[in-house]
Fold:
Amino acid sequence: MEETTDGDPERTSAPQLRRRLGRADLRAVPEARRALRELLRQWGRPGKSEIAELLTSELVTNALVHTDDDAVLTATVRPGGLRVEVRDFVTGRPRPCAPYADDSAQRTNGRGLVLVQSLADAWGVRPHGVGKAVWFELDAGAA
Structure:
């Protein structure tokens, strides 16, 4: 059994989405967005829900494009906010890549993480037995 929420005691009673994403199956990106949208209907934070969909798309896309294995998406709604985590089975740590003024339009690797870094209230990468989990949190009380 996989643990995806750092042992959070609220995990069992909180509404949760959990999806296994097939290797290199980019159809999983819009499917993940739709499933997350459904989960977030009860959250009642439309502006934050749109941000959550965008950031989830970035993490799912990264996991599917930059790894050669499946991934697992977990999203948990708690009274304090939302936590989304995408776990993959590759040990390399992703790094945000800020765009430069003279950067070519063709270079896009790492820019999705800049969005995550900019828009999430918290984010990070944590190792697990085989691979890593990239996560972000949005606080329900944040503006």
